[in-house]
C-alpha cells in the first residue's frame, strides 16, 4: 500500500533557517490511518525546492528574469519567441538539468528578485536528512523536487532534483516479466515517480511544500547514495541536445560552409541563393 500525505502548518521559510529544525514538529505530528504518528524508517520526505532555496539564501536581486536565467545557464538548447509573454528558453543549468528558464522562479517573490534552485540539490537533501534523523529518531529518505515541462508532453510535472537515501533509478533489467522473459531495458525513474505522486497532495505555494510517502521502503537505503544528479541525461547520451530549429540552422550553416570550401577548388565555384 502506498500512502502519501502533506501536512499543514509549515512555517514561513526565510534565509538561514535550519530547515530540519523547522520541519521536525510538523512531520512528527503527522497522523496515519493505522494510528501511528510521525515519520518512520523507510518513509520518503519530499520537499519542494522552493523552500530549500529560501532556506539557503538563493533569493537574489534581478532587474529582469532574463538576467537571472542568463546567470544560471550553462548551455542553451532552444529559444522560441513568444507574442504572449517572455521568450521561451530551454537551457541546461548549473545543476545539470535541462529545463525552461533554468529553473529560475519569480512567482511569490518580491519585485526585482528571483529565486534560484539550490546550488547543489543532492547536498541539500543529505543535509536535511541528517537534520531530520537527529531529531525524529528515524532516518527517512529525502527527495528535493521541482516542477518542469517534458519533451513530447503537455503540462508540467514534479521531478526529483536532489536525493539522499533513495534509489532514484530502479533497475529492473534481468527480472522476469509476466511471461517469464527477462526485462532487457526497463529502468524506472523512481525518484520522478515519487515526486509526481507527492505533488498531487503538496503545494509549494499553498502552505504545504512537504509531503511524506510511505510504502516504498525497498527504495530507501541506509547510505545517502549518489543522489539525483545521475538522472540528468547530458553529453553523448543526450539525443536531443538541441531544439529542432537550432539543429537545422547549425546543420545548414555547416553544409553551406563545407560547400563554400569545395567551390573554391572547382572552376567557376558554387553559387548560393
UniProtKB/TrEMBL annotation:
SUPFAM superfamilies: CofE-like (SSF144010). Residues 10-215 form the Coenzyme F420:L-glutamate ligase-like domain. The keyword Ligase applies. The keyword Nucleotide-binding applies. It comes from the Bacteria. Residues 251-273 are annotated as: Disordered. One of its GO terms (molecular function) is metal ion binding. Keywords: GTP-binding, Ligase, Magnesium, Manganese, Metal-binding, Nucleotide-binding, Potassium. It holds the Pfam family F420_ligase. PANTHER family: COENZYME F420:L-GLUTAMATE LIGASE, PTHR47917. NCBIfam families: F420_cofE. This is F420-dependent oxidoreductase. It comes from Beutenbergia cavernae (strain ATCC BAA-8 / DSM 12333 / CCUG 43141 / JCM 11478 / NBRC 16432 / NCIMB 13614 / HKI 0122). The lineage of its organism: Bacteria, Bacillati, Actinomycetota, Actinomycetes, Micrococcales.
Amino acid at each position: 500500500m502506498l500512502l502519501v500525505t502533506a501536512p499543514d502548518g509549515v512555517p514561513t521559510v526565510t534565509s538561514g533557517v535550519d530547515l530540519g529544525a523547522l520541519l521536525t514538529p510538523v512531520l512528527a505530528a503527522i497522523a496515519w490511518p493505522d494510528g501511528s504518528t510521525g515519520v518512520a524508517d523507510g518513509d520518503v520526505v519530499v520537499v519542494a525546492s522552493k523552500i530549500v532555496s529560501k532556506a539557503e539564501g538563493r533569493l537574489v536581486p534581478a532587474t529582469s528574469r532574463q538576467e537571472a536565467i542568463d546567470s544560471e545557464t550553462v548551455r542553451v538548447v532552444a529559444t522560441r519567441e513568444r507574442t504572449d509573454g517572455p521568450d521561451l528558453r530551454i537551457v541546461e543549468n548549473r545543476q545539470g538539468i535541462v529545463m525552461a528558464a533554468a529553473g529560475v522562479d519569480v512567482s511569490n517573490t518580491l519585485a526585482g528578485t528571483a529565486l534560484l534552485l539550490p546550488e547543489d540539490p543532492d547536498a541539500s537533501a543529505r543535509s536535511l536528512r541528517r537534520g531530520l534523523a537527529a531529531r525524529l529518531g528515524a532516518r527517512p529518505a529525502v527527495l528535493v523536487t521541482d516542477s518542469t515541462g517534458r519533451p513530447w508532453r503537455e503540462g508540467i510535472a514534479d521531478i526529483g532534483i536532489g536525493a539522499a537515501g533513495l534509489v532514484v533509478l530502479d533497475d529492473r533489467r534481468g527480472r522476469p516479466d509476466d511471461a517469464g522473459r527477462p526485462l532487457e531495458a526497463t529502468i524506472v525513474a523512481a525518484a520522478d515517480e515519487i515526486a509526481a505522486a507527492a505533488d498531487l497532495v503538496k503545494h509549494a505555494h499553498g502552505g504545504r511544500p512537504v509531503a511524506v510517502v510511505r510504502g516504498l521502503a525497498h527504495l530507501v537505503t541506509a547510505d545517502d547514495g549518489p543522489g539525483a544528479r545521475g538522472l540528468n541525461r547530458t553529453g553523448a547520451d543526450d539525443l536531443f541536445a538541441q531544439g529542432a530549429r537550432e539543429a537545422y540552422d547549425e546543420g545548414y550553416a555547416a553544409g553551406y560552409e563545407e560547400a563554400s570550401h569545395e567551390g573554391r577548388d572547382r572552376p567557376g565555384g558554387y553559387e548560393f541563393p
